[in-house]
Amino acid sequence: MAQKFTRIEDYLESLDPEVRQVLAEVRSTIRAALPEAEDAITYNMPTLMIGGRRIVHYAGWKKHVSLYPMPGDEDLASELAPYAAGRGTLKFPLDQPVPHDLIARVVQRLRGASQ
Predict the structure, then answer these.
(1) b vs e for 8-45, b when ≥16 Cβ sit within 10 Å of the residue's Cβ?
(2) What pTM does this model have?
(3) What is the residue-level pLDDT of the chain in tens, covering all 115 positions?
């Protein structure tokens, strides 16, 4: 049975060190883009919420880190295309540089879409 998380720190500690480091950097990027957001665990993964609404989820995997959901934004579509994986999922491979500026813009769009 998979471990159930109640704290972001526990989730991060459960990851392999390489994944943990990259996801911690992604978390910092997301937190900077959403300074008013509150941390939570939903769907057993780290989530940022504003006013009780889920804005973005993020997760670490063996070969990538992911953000959920992917905004349906035509302005970002071409930039997001290399990272699109399935419906509403962005995957950032660990063997490539993480586009933190793009992640920040994605999070800002998600915040705007939730209002």
Answers:
(1) beebbeebeeebeebbeebbebbeebbeebeebbeeeb
(2) 0.90
(3) 478 999 999 999 999 999 999 999 999 999 999 999 999 999 999 999 999 999 999 999 999 999 999 888 788 889 999 999 987 899 999 999 999 999 999 999 988 876 5
